[in-house]
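Researcher: Checking consistency across runs. Here is Endonuclease GajA/Old nuclease/RecF-like AAA domain-containing protein again:
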Amino acid sequence: MITEFDSITYSNAGRGLQCLLKTERALNNINTNKDKIILIEEPENHFSYSNMNNLIDILQENSNKESSQIIISTHSSFVLNKLGLENLILLSNKKSSKITNLSSDTEKYFKAISGYDTCGDGGIIVKKIE
């Protein structure tokens, strides 16, 4: 099977575009399978700035699907802010904490990072399955 994207065959596409297409395909499969969990590890290592924005848009579009959960691990303040700090669950040493449970100084630090004032869009990193 030969897949094309904007007249570029998959095998000739860059690694970032290939990752974006694979991620989008996995997210589209949420519709066909119940109880899906999508794990995305450090997308900032694989995507250009424009493809990172495309990925975040795709994640936000897919974040409300029933019986699905999208989990992203990242060290990128851009990704954190773009997806919305209020939706984060921080994990460390077998403990979890929502951004609202952090000290006000820590919360201000994350929100004040220069050039990353993108929290207004909102988004979900982890959605609880009931």
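Researcher: Does this match what you'd expect to see?
Model: One thing to look at in this run: The longest strand covers residues 36-41.
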